């Protein structure tokens, strides 16, 4: 079973529907007992970094997420859900993140329009099981103004936008994140979600 964490930060249904269409056993919950039964956890998210962290605290979800992470449960963050996996964010006000990945989240420093919205090509920087069915040049759908600045060893894929390298996929072992929306990225997104499914079985 995959649990999509319900912490009142947007796009829960679209993420759930994407998994359901692929025949996955998936539920939306913030119940600790349900989360402990999960073989995989998804952190979705639309909004701002500080609000996301505030809601995780409000619903008492930070410790259970850390517990499941330490237990080796695969965790996938999507968009804002990916960003809060990092140590700190600077959107609106400096805010501590979950710290599952090294690095910070800051306003995109690009010579192009923000938010970065639309389809862009992936550039793979290293291998990871989440991306095993993806190749250089595959297109995915982005919507964001802030981006993660990870360490090189945790950067799995990026894209080019405004003459800058934009973080697209990050991972450290079983903790993973996509800045783009796989649930809105057509066949390429489905391949990524199916790879995650294989990791949680």
UniProtKB/TrEMBL annotation:
Domain of life, per lineage: Bacteria
Record-listed E.C. numbers: 4.3.2.10, 3.5.1.2
Reaction(s) catalysed by this chain's protein: 5-[(5-phospho-1-deoxy-D-ribulos-1-ylimino)methylamino]-1-(5-phospho-beta-D-ribosyl)imidazole-4-carboxamide + L-glutamine = D-erythro-1-(imidazol-4-yl)glycerol 3-phosphate + 5-amino-1-(5-phospho-beta-D-ribosyl)imidazole-4-carboxamide + L-glutamate + H(+); L-glutamine + H2O = L-glutamate + NH4(+)
Swiss-Prot/TrEMBL keywords: Amino-acid biosynthesis, Cytoplasm, Glutamine amidotransferase, Histidine biosynthesis, Hydrolase, Lyase
Pathway where it operates: Amino-acid biosynthesis; L-histidine biosynthesis; L-histidine from 5-phospho-alpha-D-ribose 1-diphosphate: step 5/9
Pfam families to which the protein is assigned, alphabetical: GATase (PF00117)
InterPro entries associated with the record: Class_I_gatase-like (IPR029062), GATASE (IPR017926), Imidazole-glycPsynth_HisH (IPR010139)
Alphabetized GO MF terms: lyase activity
PROSITE patterns linked: GATASE_TYPE_1
UniProt keyword Lyase, yes or no: yes
Main location class: cytoplasm
Positions annotated as active site in the UniProt record: 79, 181, 183
Localization terms from the record: Cytoplasm
Domain Glutamine amidotransferase: 3-191
Subunit details: Heterodimer of HisH and HisF.
NCBIfam families assigned to the protein according to its UniProt record, in alphabetical order: IMP_synth_hisH
Chain's role: IGPS catalyzes the conversion of PRFAR and glutamine to IGP, AICAR and glutamate. The HisH subunit catalyzes the hydrolysis of glutamine to glutamate and ammonia as part of the synthesis of IGP and AICAR. The resulting ammonia molecule is channeled to the active site of HisF.
Stated name of the protein: Imidazole glycerol phosphate synthase subunit HisH
Native source organism of the sequence: Massilimicrobiota timonensis
